Recover the amino acids of this structure.
């Protein structure tokens, strides 16, 4: 059943095929948006997400891209323009995590982490600023580690932290077109992204630090992003830290 909160809107979701991005693609489509579902490696997840959206009367198109390549970032926005005539909302959920001590981190790992977490984040915001319609919405996904004092995540938290500065600058620079720009920085989320670099003891520790002794769920975070894309249009240049875990789940 397609609603109408986002009727006539076009949303581009970077990493929109699975997990948080997959839920956003479905949620935005349920509210009437036409969705460009970006994916990197997982074509079958993207196809399934598009099929699910179309199966409930919505509109979606999948597009592959390595967003560390600026040409691929541009192709995402080209797809929105060519398929749906423009774009109103751009959410970048892409990212890569590494938990490793500074003394063991290689140059190759540093470059890989900063390419996806910083460079791709910057050029996604740049292209959105160029291509979104007036009163557009740009949302990047950070991490609650942006507000943490911890070890092991130097290139992940460090790679994501420029998003806050890119966002504040873009919020000022795009304000005359009514475009809002924000970061949503979730706590540890219960997706396959989270577990490979953690031990069972650390998972338990992260749960113990959250409300309700549980990890954040993607459905705790998606409503915050939807809010920023709809009624929350007046928030700009901000970082929001939804940690969830306080639901009746
Ligand atoms: N799960 C957590 O604990 C947690 C907590 C806080 C914040 N976050 C952030 O939330 C966002 C979504 O995470 P998630 O848990 O939903 O996991 P996810 O689905 O694995 O999200 C990461 C996405 O980034 C894509 N990606 C990686 N390298 C890319 C590249 N070079 N070009 C284009 N896309 C690329 C991945 O595609 P492939 O898998 O195909 O490479 C995937 O779609 C991420 O930015 C993450 O940093 C996650």
């Amino acid at each position: 059943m397609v609603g109408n909160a986002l009727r006539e809107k076009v949303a581009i979701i970077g990493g929109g095929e699975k997990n948080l991005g997959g839920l956003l693609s479905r949620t935005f489509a349920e509210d009437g948006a036409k969705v460009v579902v970006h994916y990197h490696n997982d074509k079958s997840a993207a196809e399934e997400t598009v099929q699910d959206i179309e199966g409930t009367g919505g509109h979606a198109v999948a597009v592959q891209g390595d967003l560390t390549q600026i040409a691929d970032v541009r192709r995402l926005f080209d797809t929105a323009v060519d398929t749906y005539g423009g774009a109103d909302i751009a959410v970048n959920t892409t990212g890569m995590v590494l938990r490793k001590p500074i003394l063991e981190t290689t140059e190759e790992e540093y470059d890989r982490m900063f390419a996806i977490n910083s460079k791709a984040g910057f050029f996604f915001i740049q292209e959105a600023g160029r291509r979104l319609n007036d009163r557009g919405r740009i949302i990047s996904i950070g991490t609650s580690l942006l507000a943490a004092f911890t070890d092991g995540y130097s290139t992940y938290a460090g790679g994501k932290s420029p998003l806050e500065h890119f966002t504040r600058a873009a919020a000022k620079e795009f304000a005359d077109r009514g475009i809002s720009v924000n970061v949503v920085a979730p706590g540890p989320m219960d997706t396959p992204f989270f577990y490979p670099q953690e031990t069972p003891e650390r998972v338990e520790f992260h749960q113990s630090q959250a409300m309700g002794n549980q990890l954040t769920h993607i459905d705790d975070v998606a409503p915050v992003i939807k809010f920023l894309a709809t009624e929350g249009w007046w928030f700009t240049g901000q970082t929001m830290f939804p940690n969830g875990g306080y639901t009746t789940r």
User: Anything to note?
Assistant: The radius of gyration is 17 Å. Residues 10-190+219-240 form a domain with the Rossmann fold fold (CATH 3.40.50.720). Strands lie at 10-14, 34-39, 59-64, 89-92, 137-141, 180-184, 239-240. DSSP finds eight helices and seven strands in the chain.
